[in-house]
């Protein structure tokens, strides 16, 4: 038989004090109102019986759950999981718990999750929003919810966000490949209107225009990633544009699919095909030859996201202070981006 959960009422009855007294002590509001003797007595008893407060009920009473939700397209992705781990530490140090989940870049799933978190009285939302989610973000802001967007943003909404300088980072990556001896550089990206993907494509095009090179772009539907059709599309792209001597991948998961194709086709890197990816991965260090990448500043991203969210949560007047943060990426040059 399961042990009955101890309530505040049980504690008050056992110690012959009021429920209000117990509540004040448990919520750190007893100083100056209740004697030190009673405070100590309640604290010792709570520790002895291992009392744990019902967070949902506590949140409904106070309107504060001390929970921040981190919503990303895929929490298993190394980039997102690394950031969430660092944010979790920062949140805990400031009295908050971090709850994270995957949206699969699906607007309806994201809406369902937001509604669930509203019901749980979470205190703030850090979101990598899918397409067609502008109105939902506006609704959260109208309700006075602390919101920080991450990795991408909507130009139509004045909301705090933390992003990478995607355009300049991609531009300097393509520039590096040109200086490494490549002239026919293909760009493999997602078929997406999201700001980060648009900016990466613009950065590629800016470099191509600067050096008066030919533009070769493959756009892959996000749904095809689940169906594992990415490799087939990369292979078809290579067959169609046989003069390519380099590939730049707009995400590391696209790069991993592309590397499998190049290995299957026995294409030699870097002599026959230069390779580079936006967003580094441990896999690229282990691959032979090692793969060059544009590295995103994970620690700086995590720090900035929590800094902005905590500022919003601590605003005494409840008004959101809008903060835009655009962080630089850094080139990690390895063996794959220089012609021998």
Automatic annotation (TrEMBL):
Keywords assigned: DNA-binding, Transcription, Transcription regulation
Protein name: LacI family transcriptional regulator
Gene Ontology terms, MF aspect: DNA-binding transcription factor activity; transcription cis-regulatory region binding
CDD domains: HTH_LacI
Family annotation (Pfam families): LacI, Peripla_BP_3
InterPro entries from the UniProt entry: HTH_LacI, LacI/GalR-like_sensor, Lambda_DNA-bd_dom_sf, Peripla_BP_I
Keyword DNA-binding: yes
Domain HTH lacI-type: 6-62
PANTHER family for this protein: HTH-TYPE TRANSCRIPTIONAL REGULATOR GALS, LACI-RELATED TRANSCRIPTIONAL REPRESSOR
